[in-house]
Amino acid sequence: MNDFLDLHEIDEENVIMRLFVQTFGAEVRKWLKALPAGTMNTLAVLHRQFLDHWEVKKNPLQILSKYENIKRTVGESVQDHCVRFNTIYDAIPADIKSPMGLALIKFPDGFDPNMEYQLRERDPATLEDMHKITVSVEANLLAKRARVKTEKKVTIKEEASSSDHLLHKIEKMFDRLTIVDTPKTQVRNPNFRGQQQPQFRIKQWEQRAQDQTTQ
Disulfide check for 129: which of 27, 66, 75, 124 has CB 3.0–4.6 Å away? Predict the structure, then answer.
């Protein structure tokens, strides 16, 4: 093996590091990819940083503190969170470990309020059953959120269409009122003066009668 590596100028340590990385789970891979470039330049550094970050400490108080404060992190899948919860719970010494029933009560605390409420409605017998239920609950919540989002889009579109229709009707109503209120041009009757002539003659006769009486 060493001859093969030497022949092809392959660094044996580099191969071991690559093989070791291939054993990482999803959460560990995310942690590794988030590290700055050149951080893991030797196998010793990789081992040290890996253990410093992922090794469950043997201090019982530290383990209990992690257990009490465990929360699902941003971007963490349900499966990864369940694995992390089990790892910490199993690392608690037997003499101070809480019973399974209390662990089942504790588990929903690690999720958002909506998810937590849904999980507390269930009654699993083991953590394994709780994990299966958690996956199902999350799938249902995601489907529900997607459905509500779609319904909101449809409602907004319908409201906008109704508003446009109402606005169009109001515009037509104003157009009709404008037509009604517009004053029409008055056409002078050509016989207007002729209609006034009899009255004018009557006044002339009355004036003449008054003049004769005066004389």
Answer: 124
Residue 12 tokens, joined? 């044996």
Q: Does residue 132 sit in the same domain as residue 73?
A: yes
Asked if residue 70 lies in contact with residue 85, where contact means CB atoms within 8 angstroms, the answer is yes
Together in a domain, 114 and 166: yes
Between helix 78-91 and helix 26-34 the angle, nearest 10°, is 100
Residues 66 and 40 in one domain: no
Residue 192 lies in a domain: no
Tell me how many domains the chain contains: 2
d(CA 126, CA 85): 13
Name the pTM for this structure.
0.46
Distance CA 38, CA 45 (A): 11
Residue 20 CA to residue 18 CA, distance in Å, equals 5
The residues of the chain scoring below 70 in pLDDT are 1-11, 53-58, 154-155, 157-161, 178-205, 212-215
Beta strands in 60-153, from DSSP E residues, in sequence order: none
